[in-house]
Amino acid sequence: MKTTRTLTLEFVRHGPPHNQLLSPITEYLALCGNHGATSVFLPFEHHEFLLRLSALRYQERRDRPEDAMAVRAAHAREMGQLMSGILGEVPGLKADLGSCPQHPDELIHLQLVVSAAELALLPFEAALTPPGSPGAGKPLSLQTALPMSLTRQVRRAFTPVVHWPTTPRILCAISSAGGVVPGADHVRVLRAAIAPWVRPAEQASAGAPDNVGDMLTVMTDASLEKLSQACSEKAYTHVHILAHGKSFPVVGGTRFGLALHDSRDASKVEVVDGERLALALRSHKHTQGVPLTPPAVVTVASCDSGNVDTLIAPGASLAHALHEAEIPLVVASQFPLTFAGSMVLTHVLYSRLLWGADPRVVLHEARQKLRLLEGEVHDWASVVAYTSFPPDFDSRLWSSQVRQAHAAAEAALARSGRLLEPTGPLTDKEGPAPVAPEAKTIAKLTEELGNLTVARDRLLAALPQERAQAARAAELYGQCGSIEKRRAQIHYHVRQQSKDEGRLRELDLEIRAALERAASYYWEGLQRVLPSQWLATQNLCIRWLLDGKVEARWWRVAQASSRMDLEGSSAESRLWAHASLAEVYLLAPFIEPSPTDVKTEDPTQDLSPETARELALKHAESFAGLADRNSFHLLSTRRQFERYMTWFIPYVREMLEKEHAREVRSGSERSASVKSRLEALSSLQENVREVLKRFPVSTSPAAYSYPTS
Question: Where is the CHAT domain (predicted)?
């Protein structure tokens, strides 16, 4: 689902935002798109509206819950009809809604600009679709005839400068000062939301079991001082607050704030309003030169965090105040929020936003999920979202989607790679022997297959179509190829544990299908950016795995791409080129037809198996001499050659042995060619061992820090 059009509806009146009661004699001007201004009058007095509003606060009798639910549902629908009547008085809105294309995969964003405090009281989110519009009579935020996401905005003169986050850092602040809250449940939901990006221990901060702490900080017994201190030490992109709402007195009435722990005495309650909370979230950073920036997203799982209450004193709701402090997205609740509703809301928001999903679409999905809750609860109508996005928001979203898909793929590859590694440090210079994983490891690998599939699909969905983004597209296609190669490896190791003939045939098909997809992805990437020694060499390796031989054209592409990078100006490209050429020359004996016409680096000399071996070892030595012992370059290259020992060669040998047996039984002359390739495998195994002897073993965890872009 995508946002196809944003409709902006603004209500304005004379005078300051506060000190005005709801009244049928107060005139508001409604401005919608390019249509003329329309006068709008409310159909109720202030006290009458408050009576209607009180019916939505779950304050019913407990002895007849079934009657209470029915009454509550009736009140919610009546409130929706009132809000629909107000929106229906704006001819421009009905005209724009009627002209919007109706498609189930497209969503309309209705941006409601309201600065008058008394209008912020109105639950527009509960509105029914006005008559004459698609889906008329159905809840505006839920109907599917014309899917719509309603958000609010404060009228102001600035545009948000916060960059939409591509690397999330979440602060979860929990306060039980006002009563019991489902803190453990919310932490579990957030932990599940960041799971696709969790990396093994060596890729985390020093001393940490994984990198969860880099993405999620949990603060229990949250106080205003703790929030300020945390935000001054780290720039959080998302802040999730779980606390009870509590009213506090102001001149002329009461306001709603958050019940946090007192900064001086954690056993006491301190009620914090929106302005003070905003200051804490925008604390000055301790690092010199870091600008004062707010989080991009603040979610408040608290009752009445979007409720205005008194209209006499300046100010509005807590969510309103946070949005005025230049936070682009604030999600809160304008009524009491049930525990179950807070869980659903948190799950939908974070499981989708962290992937870079459009928050307007996510809000529509969240309201639909909330409507499915058991019983006649109206948490879906309670959710209020204040949004303000920059003009280039769609392109920022795309960048976030690409970055998060890329990071999730890297994390899934890292986790599955760790499971496939031999236990203990890599100290065997001869190269590790094939390893048959234990049953519990197989179960984890099977789970990672699903994670790899999700990451691959996200990468494909994020692929850019513009020619200017060809290099980025090639990188993403290459990563999809790496994912499929890893999927084939997992299937191969699972196969080693299976005894059932039917299951073995299924896994053989899975391995081949994954390798074929990997080859196609590497080739798609090559078509977008050539030369690329990484894509060309990986394509060469996969095609050898598929057939136990390679066509000369694929070999030439890999050799030429690597040679061009070797002669380039980038030191890093030259380093990788040496590693690629070592692999390219190791596979030279498997070129068919015979490589007599394939030239070496010396055009006057043919490429014999002996010459290919010498060139492979020469480039391996050059690579090892240039690479730092504890660098990612060395670790990654060593792992690639170790794969030849742990599954590439065993897999190809088993495949060729079966092919040779078939050819012998049929009396085919091709059996000699297959036998020649089988003999070449023994030489390849010895050559890989010699290459590995030239690569020192990494000893520092820093080598496991995979670079991301």
Answer: 80-386
For residue 706, pLDDT over 50 is answered with no
- Helix, strand, coil proportions of the chain in percent (round to 5)? 50, 15, 35
Q: Is the CB of residue 121 less than 8 Å from the CB of residue 79?
A: no
Contact call for residues 255 and 247 (beta carbons, < 8 A): yes
Is 463's pLDDT higher than 50? Answer: yes
Residue pair 566/585 in contact (Cβ under 8 Å)? The answer is no
> Token digits for 261?
């722990």
Pairing of strands 329-333, 383-387: antiparallel
Give the H or E element holding residue 331: strand 329-333
Q: Are 27 and 13 in contact (CB under 8 A)?
A: yes
Q: How far apart are CA 76 and CA 531, in angstroms?
A: 63
CB-based contacts of 153, cutoff 8 Å, min separation 6:
111, 112, 113, 114, 323, 386, 387, 388
Range list for CATH 3.40.50 in the chain: 170-395
DSSP codes of every residue in 521-533:
HHHHHHHHSS--H
Confidence of residue 54 (pLDDT cuts 50, 70, 90): confident
Q: What is the pLDDT of residues 420-437, one digit of tens each?
A: 876 544 444 444 555 556
Residue type at 72 in one-letter notation: R
What pLDDT, on a 0 to 100 scale, did the predictor assign at position 546? 94
For residue 159, how many C-alpha atoms fall within 13 Å in the half-sphere facing its CB? Answer: 6
For the whole model, what pTM was predicted? 0.85
Q: Which uninterrupted H or E stretch holds 671?
A: helix 671-693
Class of domain 170-395: alpha beta
Q: Is 36 exposed, middle or buried (0-12, 13-18, 19+ CB in 10 A)?
A: exposed
Output the six-digit token pair for 655: 């495949």
- Is residue 548 within 8 A of residue 655, CB to CB? The reply is yes
Distances (CA, A) of 540 to 267, 300, 523, 550, 597: 66, 52, 10, 7, 18
Per DSSP (E only), the strands in 532-678 are none
3-state secondary structure at position 380: helix
- First and final CA of the chain: distance in angstroms? 27
**Helices within 44-182 (DSSP H only):** 46-54, 65-88, 91-99, 117-120
Question: What number is the average pLDDT over the span 26-42?
Answer: 92
